[in-house]
Amino acid sequence: MHAQGTNVPDEINKLKNPNFANGKTKPSGWKWVGEDAGASWERREGDGVVLKLDDARKRLIAYQDVSCKPDEYYRVEASVLCDFDVEGEPSGFRLVATFLDKGKPIGEPTRTSPVRRVSNLISVRAYLYVPEEVRRVRFAICVEGAKGHAIVHQARFIRVIEPEELSHMLAVPAPSLRVPPPICAERIAVCSERAGERCVTELLERYCGQRKVTALSLEGFTPKTVEADAILLPDAVPPSKLRSIKALMDLAEESLVIISLPAFSKLAGSAVKLRRIEQDDDPIHARVNHANYATRGWALNDNFAYAWRGKRIGSFVQNQYKLTGEFRQFAKKHELVTVLESLCDQDATSNRPICLIREFERGALVVLDIEPVEEPGSTFGEPALAMHLLLNLLGQTPCGLGQYMVPHEEIHRFRQNIRFAQERIEGWYVHDEDVPIEEVENQLVMLGSDEQSFGLPIRPKPLVLVRSGLESGDAESIYGSMLYFKQLLRMPPYTCPYAEYLSGKIRLGWLPVTAPWESRSGFERKRHKPESNLSIDVEDSALDTVIDVVSVPANRIRVLFPNAVPTTERYQRYLPALWQAFPPGHYFVPEVADGEEFDDRDRFDWRIAENQLEIVIDPARFDGSFHQEALSTGANVMIVEVPGNDADFVAKSILRTDIVATLLEQAIGLRAGLIAVNRRTSAARFGTFPPVSPGDLLVVEPTDPMLESIQQAG
């Protein structure tokens, strides 16, 4: 399998001989380390190079030193296939970036997570920020620690203005059930010249079931006879029997119609002018311009990658509409709202419409290109967000507590936002040093304060303390925990339905980040631990429970306890049942199966996230001084493990923050009795309790005899 298309221009890709084609005896521009009998390389016909390891103890590296600009961002990537043994410690193919000073390495190398097996060409991608004092970087491709081979088609080192993905962590989007879609599609028709072969057809069949998806040719499409709740028209031309904007609007009055930008432009005529953008430096992004059911999980002005491959290897393409006076008049006349705008590397091609929506009472018209759903993507997992958008449009199960999140590059910016939160969210109190934010080392967030009378506490309440960020780069734990605490303090009309009940039982505290900060940006986290144990002194509240949230490099959800005491038995009995009855949202993402690790790309497939939960007793995980001290005072301790892939947190942030926030809601709720919210679109059943309708709440006092109806897990 060879890469197709022309290469990214030399002035864009800073690497010399990026496809290894030039040079007589060896690829010019590259230096080799580790060549011997157990580690070798060979050229491929056409382009690319094969790196082989016959001895798992060996390492083979090809590298070159690249000039770079300080205080700038670079996209580093390589298009690869590989097949390595999957036994043992992390091993396989990696990208490695090392900063240089006068030709000598400085600091620790930055390495991507290993890729062990991938049969379909994929871009291993990461983003590198160059510090102010650095002007050269050593870029390397590396195989190590396993027997097998990697085929590298092309490597790229490309300067980007700045990574354009962006989220607004303090925004409080409306709960998903408060922004219902106009239609929930049960039957879907894909009308395309090659409808049966399109990736989107197969994906929808796997998500909805084959019987609910129909593939129609362009000639076989007739507006009056098609039987479907949702109709996808993804081709560049509309069906021949759909001849006008009026006919399209008539069709959308009774069903959801998603039509491509080029096809809609052909129906609209000269009023809607299409522009096709291709750029090499960074994936083209979409900005959320209008909040509705399509953007559930995003906040206004969030930016996320929304593009597909261009003709040049490594380039990206997006269609958009020109913002002319004619277009504005046309959109106003037909009541079309711009939901997504373009975000490109040039102002002239940014802020242009790429998704339009017109809602009707029983249907909707959506103008949107769906090619990003069909892309293989990179190790960043970009198609996951495109699919989330499409399923939102189709009216599928909403996303619960999840929200799109992009980790901050620097710790002081995150801590500053934590401080800002107390100005925007009533009941959010931040305890940190009275120093400039750059000097803050520890932060403690408390929700609410003890009731006071003449300066004296009326009724001290037990403290439940959540700790996240226990290892550097653990975005899942940090941002997922933040969403749980943020949703507790939602303002009207989206007030948390159980906040008053919970605040009457316990106090809540959160240590957001305890380990050194690290923004992964596609690189493997270094997993630094906290530099010291933190002593906690919270007014008159006695420490009752410590919940540590951590992510692990596997698709696994577990809650761990140090021993089998009555508290543990209570969680064993109720938490798995709660999790099954009131799960996170319904997600369809490219993922490994439950329990598997993320380094074997051949195990990735589009799956409906099952999110199985396991309760584990493991005393060895609680031998640290903080846990031991908490246990000695009689406090309960537990560890919540959630999936965490170093590469694709942003693309799957809505899913992963949903997992953390929902699990904390139920685990903390069990300390106060039993709390669950049904955020799905159908009724939930829990034991012999009455069915819980969508959007409704289940709160049970710990002494309620009906809890006996819940069976012991396992």
Number of helices, where a helix is a run of at least 4 consecutive DSSP H or I residues? 12
Low-confidence region ranges: none
How much helicity do the residues have? 10-25%
The span between the termini is 47 Å
Task: Please state the overall shape, judged from the principal axes of the Cα atoms.
Answer: globular
The radius of gyration is 27 Å
Mean of the pLDDT scores? 91
What does this molecule look like?
The protein is α+β, with helices and mostly antiparallel strands. 18% of the residues lie in helices and 30% in strands. The chain has 12 helices and 36 strands. It has a 9-stranded mixed β-sheet. An 8-stranded mixed β-sheet has the order 23-24-28-27-29-34-30-33. Strands 1-4-9-6-7 form a 5-stranded antiparallel β-sheet, with no helix packed on it. Strand 13, helix 2 and strand 14 form a beta-alpha-beta unit. Helix 8 packs across helix 12 and helix 10 crosses helix 12. The longest helix has 19 residues. The model has no long low-confidence stretch (mean pLDDT 91).
Please describe the structure with a list of short key phrases separated by commas or semicolons:
12 helices, nine-stranded mixed beta sheet, alpha+beta, single chain, 714 residues
Fold topology:
Layout: E1 31-33, E2 39-43, E3 49-53, E4 59-67, E5 72-84, E6 92-101, E7 104-111, E8 117-130, E9 136-144, E10 148-160, E11 188-191, H1 199-208, E12 213-216, E13 230-233, H2 245-252, E14 256-259, H3 261-268, E15 274-279, E16 285-288, E17 303-305, E18 308-309, E19 316-321, H4 325-333, E20 337-343, E21 353-359, E22 364-368, H5 371-374, H6 383-393, H7 411-424, E23 428-432, E24 443-447, E25 452-453, E26 456-457, E27 463-467, H8 475-488, H9 499-503, E28 507-511, E29 543-552, E30 557-561, H10 566-581, E31 588-591, E32 605-608, E33 613-617, H11 625-632, E34 636-643, H12 653-671, E35 674-677, E36 697-700
Parallel strand pairs: 11-12, 11-13, 13-14, 14-22, 27-28, 27-29, 29-34, 30-33
Antiparallel strand pairs: 1-4, 2-3, 3-10, 4-9, 5-8, 5-10, 6-7, 6-9, 15-19, 16-17, 16-20, 18-19, 20-21, 21-22, 23-24, 24-28, 25-26, 30-34, 31-32, 35-36
Helix pairs in contact: 8-12, 10-12
